[in-house]
Design brief:
Layout lengths: L6 H20 L10 H19 L8 H40 L6 E3 L4 E3 L1 H16 L2 H15 L9 H42 L5 H22 L1 H20 L1
Antiparallel strand pairs: 1-2
Subcellular location: Cell membrane
Main location: membrane
Membrane topology: Multi-pass membrane protein
Length: 253
């Protein structure tokens, strides 16, 4: 029995699978530790089959050595694109971390296997909320759409221009820091004013222990007002998903 095989189709789809899998291993929401790596690999294979009509158009078979180099190039391309998306969405995690620091929750750290770091309560809460919102709002579709359109600009036989990701990395890092402060900013101002008020009280009444009073007051203010910050997260995640899709297009264009 003779089963004909289209080796050009297999090679092109394999290269696309490597790029997509490397992207899924790094980019949120798929990079969360609660999603096993084998599930991400299976998803990468399925998505590669979906884009195979695009990546195989005009594909010419490569030699063994060139094909292996192309595999490495696709892994680097996918990982770079995924890292840019991860950096952009780190703004939500950074906002939670700022609230933990200023609100006095930083002492209650625990290892979170999902994000792979020691994190305080609001850091983990904001990160998990962002992941849930990405899946429920369809934001992950925008991110994957940006990845799929990268195949039009950077074919599976090529590699991304490293100058563009470097510039985009600097811009995304700055945007991440600014976004984190903007998300948590109103609550941080309240907590800062609470510190100023406690300092003035200490000057007026030195007998009062401002350090002992500060913890319960700041924790109470944080728990009372964090709901206002939490309520804006759906809109923030929606904007970040759109920015991530535009960033992927800008880097690969």
């Amino acid at each position: 029995m003779n089963i004909p095989l289209d080796f050009a189709w297999i090679e092109a789809t394999s290269l696309a699978c490597v790029r997509i899998t490397a992207f899924l291993a790094v980019a949120p929401p798929f990079s969360n530790g609660s999603i096993p790596m084998r599930i991400r690999a299976m998803l990468g294979v399925g998505l590669a089959l979906a884009v195979s009509p695009v990546v195989t158009a005009g594909y010419v078979r490569l030699g063994t050595g060139v094909f292996l180099l192309a595999l490495v190039g696709q892994a680097i391309t996918g990982a770079l694109l995924g890292f840019l998306v991860m950096l952009l969405f780190s703004a939500v995690q950074g906002a939670g971390s700022l609230i933990d620091v200023f609100g006095g929750f930083q002492l209650a750290q625990a290892y979170d296997p999902g994000i792979g770091i020691n994190a305080a309560p609001f850091t983990r809460l904001f990160q998990m909320t962002a992941i849930v919102l990405l899946f429920t709002s369809g934001g992950y579709q925008l991110v994957l759409g940006g990845l799929f359109r990268s195949f039009d600009a950077v074919p599976v036989t090529g590699m991304i221009d490293l100058d563009r990701p470097t510039a985009a990395l600097v811009g995304a890092a700055g945007q991440m820091l600014v976004s984190a402060v903007q998300i948590a900013g109103p609550l941080l101002i309240v907590l800062f004013l609470a510190d100023v008020g406690l300092g003035l009280i200490t000057r007026v009444a030195p007998a009062l222990n401002a350090f002992a009073l500060g913890f319960p007051i700041k924790i109470g203010l944080t728990l009372l007002l964090v709901g206002f910050v939490y309520a804006v997260l759906p809109g923030v995640v929606d904007v970040l998903a759109g920015d991530a899709a535009k960033l992927l297009l800008g880097v690969t264009r």
